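> tool_call: predict_assembly(chains=three)
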Amino acid sequence: MNPRYLPLTATVAIFLIAYAVCIAQYPNMLSTRVIGNLLTDNAFLGIAAVGMTFVILSGGIDLSIGAVIAFTGVFLAVLLQSTAIHPLVAFALALIITTAFGAIMGAIIHHLEMPPFIVTLAGMFLARGMAFVLSIDSIPIKHPFYTTLKSFYYVLPGGGRLTLIGGLMLVVFLVGILIAHRTRFGADVYALGGGTATARLMGVPIGRTTILIYALSGFLAGLSGIVFSLYTSAGYSLATVGVELDAIAAVVIGGTLLTGGSGFVAGTLIGILIQGLIQTYITFDGSLSSWWTKILIGLLLFAFILLQKALILLSDRKRRHA
Amino acid sequence: MQSVSSYVLSATGIDKIFPGARALNGVDFSLARGEVHALLGENGAGKSTLIKCLTGAYRRDGGRILLDGVDVDPHNTLEAQKLGIGTVYQEVNLLANLTVAENLFLGRQPRRFGLVDARAMNKQARALLSEYDLDIDVTAELSAFSVAVQQVIAIARAVDLSGKVLILDEPTASLDTHEVAMLFRIVRRLKERGLGIIFITHFLEQVYEISDRITVLRNGQLVGTRETAALPRRELIAMMLGRELVQEVGEAKHSETKAPGEARFRFRSFGRKGHIQPFDLDVASGEVVGIAGLLGSGRTETAEILFGAERADSGTAQADGRTLDLSSPRAAIREKFGFCPEDRKVDGIVGDLSVRENIVLALQARRGWARPISRSEQDRLADHYIKALDIRTSDREKPIRLLSGGNQQKAILARWLATNPEFLILDEPTRGIDVGAHAEIIRLIETLCENGMSLIVISSELEELVAYSSRVLVLRDRAHVAELTGEEVTTNAIIEAIASAHEGRPA
Amino acid sequence: MTGTLKAYAVRLFPQVAALAIILFMVSLAFPGFFKLSFQNDRLYGSLIDILNRGAPVALLAIGMTVVIATKGIDLSVGAVMAICGAVAAASITAGHSLAFTLAVTISTGILCGLWNGVLVAVLDIQPIIATLVLMVAGRGIAQLITEGAILTFNHPGLIFIGSGSLFGLPMPVIIWLGFGLIVALLVRRTALGMLIEAVGVNRRASRLSGVSTGVLLIAAYMLSGLCAALAGIIAAADIRGADANNAGLWLELDAILAVVVGGTSLLGGRFSIAASLLGAMIIQSINTGILLSGFPPEFNLIIKAAIIVLILVIQSPRAQSAFIWLSRARATEPTKGQEAK
C-alpha cells in the first residue's frame, strides 16, 4: 500500500473500531440521532479545523483561531444588540474582518520571515483582546433570524437531525477537499509543505500562497465563529479558549503530517469525529470523567506523531538503500 | 571566437566575488547545440558558482552570457528556465510529497471549469514520460520512485519547460550502473534533438563515455576546454588536481625524508557499510599520512569513521597496543583525537559564538561542564592561538561568523590544538582560503608533525600532500586502492594511481 | 571583571530602560505607585505586588530561556504547572509531610521535562510538536489527579510558600529571585551556559567538538519542568487549592513572551536569564499598570500583541540585514559574513 495512505487508514480504522466498541457497549449509539448530534456539536470545530489543515499542510501553524472564533461571536452579538442591521450583513462584515486578519498574519509571516508560531500567537492575543474590548460579558443573541436559521434541519431516517450548522460543516469539508486536491492553490499548499526552497525553485508563488493560506484560515475561523454563535445563541469573549489545540489534534489524528506536505482534508473530518466520539462515549457512560477526553486525545496525538516519525525514517532508509 | 550561431550558450569573462573570496575569475564557457559538455573540477573549484551564474541563482559580477546569440541576464532560476536554461540537480529538486504528474505540471496544471483537470494532467504526464521510455504510475507520489526515475522526471520537466540548454548537476551520484546507462540513453536522445547539455560529475569514466568536450575549473579559474577524444585521462586528472605533468621531473621532495618510527595507531579492517570499505591504516608519531582521491572517492567518509562521527561497523582501532573507543566524537576526543571537518560552516564553526569560545569549545567539552575553564585561562588560550596562528580578528570576542574563511579555519585548528591532540584529522584544511593563510596552515602542519603529533590530511591539492606527507593513501569508489610511501610520494605517482585505478575498473 | 560588568550593562540596558519607562508611565497615572510600607514584618506596595504576581511567569521564563537557547521551545509548562499543583495538593491532603510533598511535586515536574527532552533529543521530534503532546494531555492528567474538583488544602506550611514572607519579602518573590540567581550562577559559573549556546547555534558542530548534545537538551527540558513545578506549587499555594483547569493557563505563552522581550532569539544561541526575568517583570508591570491606572484590563492582551509585533519587526532577519547593511555602510571594515561555497 502507498505509505501516504497509512496514517489516514489508521485514522479510519481507529474510528471504526472505536465506534464498534461503543456500539457493543451502548447499542443506542448506533443511531442517526447520535450521528446528527456529533455533527452539530462539532460543527464549529470542524470548520475551523479545515482551515488549520491547510495551514499545517503548508508547514505552518495558526494559534489564533480560538480567539478569532470568540471575537466573531462577540462582534456579532454586540452588532446585533446595538444596531438594527441584518445578521447576514453582520456575517459578511465578520468574515471580511477575520479574512483580512488572517491575510495580514500571512503577510507578516512571509515578509518579516518570522515563525508562524509567534506571529499567530500575537494574532491570538490581539483577537482575544479585541473581543474583550468589545465586551467582557456573555451577550445573548435573540434575533429572530437566528431562531429561523436554527429551525432549519433535515430529519434523517431514524429521527436524527442534520442541522444547518452540521450540514454547513460537511459542505465546508467538501469544498476544502476540492480546494486541496482540485485547484492550483491546493497543489501550491502541498508544495510549500514539501519544502519552501524547492517550491520556490519550481515557481510556486510563495508569498501569495502563504497569505492566501492564512486568509483562508481566518475566513474559516470567522465562519466557525458564526456557527458557534448560532450554536450557543450568544457571544462571549472567554469562549472557545484552546480550540486551536483541539483543531491541531484533529488535524494530526486525521493523518496530516505536523511538519507539513502530507495529509488529507477528509482525514481531519475523521479526526473531529474521533474526538466527538470519545466525548459522546463518556457522556453515555456517565461514570467516566471528562478529563479522559484530553488524556486520550493526547495519547492519540503521541501515537500519530510516532507513526509519522517511523514512516519518515522508513522512507529515508529505503531511499538510501535504493 | 567561433561564430555566434554554432553555440547555443556562450559565456565570457564571468566574474563572481563573494565577501572575502573570488569564486570565479574571468571564466569562459561555451556550449554548442547537440553537445554534451562536461564541467569538471574539485569542490570549491567554482563549478556550482558558474552554474548558478548561468541559471540566475547568483548575479554575476562581470562578464557576458549569450543565449542563441542574444545577451541574457536572468535574475532567478525561473527566468532562466523561461529563457530556455533548465537545471537538474543531484538532490532532485522536485517535491517528494507531490505526485509525479503534479511535479511535472506544478503551476501550469490543465484546468476545466476553474478546477484542475487531473485526468487530463495525468494523461499529459504519461505522454510526456513515454518520450523517455518511462511507463510509471503518474498519480503516485514522487518519493515512491528510485532516484534514477526521479532524475528522469526532473529532466522531463526541465526540458519541457526550457528546451535549449539542460544542466545536469551530478545526476549520477547515487545511481547504479544500470540506471546510469538508462540516463545516458536519454541524454543521447536529447542531444540528437539539438539540446546543449552541461554535465557535471566526478565520475571520469562517465565523462569519457558521454561528453564531447571537457572544461576544467580550478580555484575559480578556467584551466582549459578540450575535446574529450583528444584528452588523455592522466592529463585530465592533472588539470583537475593542478600539476602539469611536464613540471613533474626533478621534484625536490623529502630532502631529509623523515623515517617514520614504528606505527603508533593501528586500524585493522576498519570500515562501515555504505560509507567506506574496510581498510588498514598505520600511523606513527610525527607522521603525516595524506589521503588523496577524487571527489566522492570516500575521503571524508574515511575521516568521519576515524573520528567516530560515523560509527565503524567492522574492524579494530589500537594505539600503543591498547584498543581505542571511537564510537562517537566525544569518545574519540577522550582518546586525544581531533577533527577539522571539510564543511567549515555546517560542521565546524559555531557562528554566533566568539572566537574565544570557538577555540575553547572542544577542550571545555572534554573537561565537562562542571570544570569550567576560567575566563582568564580562556583569554590566555584564545590570545595565544590568535597570535600563534595569526588569526586576523579585531578581538577575541568577535563572533566567528564575521571572520574570513581562512581565519575561521585557523580558529577551528586552534580549537583542536588547545585539546593537545595526539591524532589530528584535517579534511581539506586549505580549501577556499587565501594564499597567505594557505602557506601558514601548511607550515603549521609541518610543525605539528615535528612535535610528534600523528596527522591525517585529506586534500585535493596534490602538491601540498606531497610536500608534507610521508605516505599517501589513494582512494577510489569508497575503498583504499593504493598506498604510496617515501620516494613514491610524488604528484605524478598519485595521479597515476588514481588514473590507473580508474582504468582498472571493469567497464 | 569591569569588562564583564560593562557587557552585562549593555546587554540588559534595553530591558531595564523599557521597565523604567513603563513604571514611570504607570506612576504618572497612579501617583502612589512607588510607595512602599512595612507592616507585619513585610513590605507592601505596588512594586512588591508586581514582583509577587509575576512569580510564576518569572519562574517559567528561567526554564524557557534555557530551552529556547537550545533552539527549542516548551509549550507544556502551563499544563505541567497544573499537574504539579494537583500533585502537591493531592499529596498534602493525603496527609504526607511538606518535605515529601515538595519532593514528589518537584520530581513530577522533572519527570515531565524528561519526557519532553527524550522526545526532542532521542526521538528527534521537533520541540514544538513534542511538547504539544503534554500540553494537550497535561490538563487531563491534572484533572485525573484532582478528580475534576478544585482540590483545596489548608496545610500552613504549603500555604506559606504562596502567601508567607521572609526577609520582608513575599515567599514567591524569594523563590523566583533565589532560583533565578542559582540557575544564572549555575550556567555562568560553570561551562553549561556556553555549551548550551553552542548546541543552540550549531548542534552538529557542537557534537563534532565533543559536546554531549543529547544530555544537554534533555537537561534543558528537565530544568523547564522543574521551573514549572515550582511555579505550580506557588500558584496552588496562592489560592490554597489546585485548579486543574485554570492553573498556569496560557502561562507558557507569557513565558515565551518574557524570553522574547528579554532579547533571547527564538532561533537559539545567546541567552540571558536576567534579561528574561526582566522581561517577565515588564509583562507583569503592564498587567498591574493597566489595572492600577484604571484602564480596562481588556487592553492587556492588545498591548501584549503590540509588543510581540514590535519585537518581531526588530528581530526579523530582514530588519537585521538592513541594520547590518547600515552599520557596514558606516564602518569601512568589510564584514565577511558570507563565504564562497
